[in-house]
């Protein structure tokens, strides 16, 4: 009996786009690779990728077949992600400027984000 060949060998994965179309990519391709393969302007507008219902960084390799959605910065789902990242940048900057400062709490809120800090007694 002859073996049936599929597009999905050990080096390839099948990506399903939101419209149901599929594309084959090399295992380990990233969200940014996918966005760039569709359009350079799409790649510039993307801030994250949804892979099988989970939000991922665009640089994370995709190792298996997946359903994806590329999330652009104007997508309402992106704002929370952007605020979260900005909060981390703020926390890192404060800790670099004021060594020993502890980050206590910093959730996203409706209009942005905030962080509470506990300064080291020597830097206060």
Q: Tags for this entry?
A:
alpha+beta, Ubiquitin-like (UB roll), Threonyl-tRNA Synthetase, Chain A, domain 2, 2 domains, five-stranded mixed β-sheet
Question: What does the model show?
Answer:
The chain has helices at about 30-40, 40-45, 75-95; strands spanning about 10-15, 20-25, 30, 45-50, 55, 60, 65-70, 100-105, 110, 110-115, 115-120. It has about 120 residues and is α+β, with helices and mostly antiparallel strands. The protein has 2 domains: about 10-75, Ubiquitin-like (UB roll) (Roll), CATH 3.10.20; about 75-120, Threonyl-tRNA Synthetase, Chain A, domain 2 (2-Layer Sandwich). It is elongated.
CATH class of the largest domain: Alpha Beta
Number of domains: 2
Order of helices and strands: EEEHHEEEEHEEEE
Strand elements, count: 11
The fraction of residues assigned to DSSP E strands is 25-35%
What topology does this entry show?
Layout lengths: L11 E5 L5 E5 L2 E2 H8 L1 H6 E6 L2 E3 L4 E2 L3 E7 L3 H22 L4 E4 L2 E2 L2 E2 L2 E3 L6
Parallel strand pairs: 1-7
Antiparallel strand pairs: 1-2, 3-6, 4-5, 4-7, 8-11, 9-10
Question: Summarize this, please?
Answer:
The protein is of the alpha+beta class and 124 residues long. The protein is 29% helix and 33% strand.
